[in-house]
Amino acid sequence: MLYAGDVGAYDGPWTDPDAMRKLNGLWRYSQGTALDGFSVTGMAYSNRWNSTDQVPLRAIMAGAIGRLDAKDPTDGGNANRFSLSARMAQSDDAGSWKANAYVVKSRLDLFNNFTYFLFESASGDQFHQHDDRLLSGGSLSRTFTGWFAGRLIETILGAQGRYDAIDLSLTDTYQRSFLSNLRRASPAWF
Q: 71-75, 108-112, 126-130: which range is least confident on average?
């Protein structure tokens, strides 16, 4: 059995702290070898943060904000990704079998405001990029070994497949609260 973890935090020098909090984890159980054995692996990642982004020089020079301030302190985001996979292999006198399967769930939410109040003077120009994905797949193969014309040959027969469900959107927001849809694609299958 193998397991590992990582925890991180960062606030930075900013007036509005980054408040970055990150968790990583890995777990794997395996038996046997790569040719005769199996393994199951789980991985997890989670992160959230505030982002100062760029700061307009003219606002600093005018004294409206400090060098370490943020024009929109609600910019930032969160991301997570979780996966589970399994692998199996077995050899015999005629060749070998191999199979694997996986499922991955990920989500990303970003809040940005590059133009501040250029287009919306009351609520600001913050927007939200949302990406939510589920993908799964697997493969199965059979390898036959033999001899042909005095040479060792391998013939592999197999099948593999993958399924993706993707939910994307781009919305106008104010302090991370929804205002209106700009674009939406939900769900897309590939």
A: 71-75
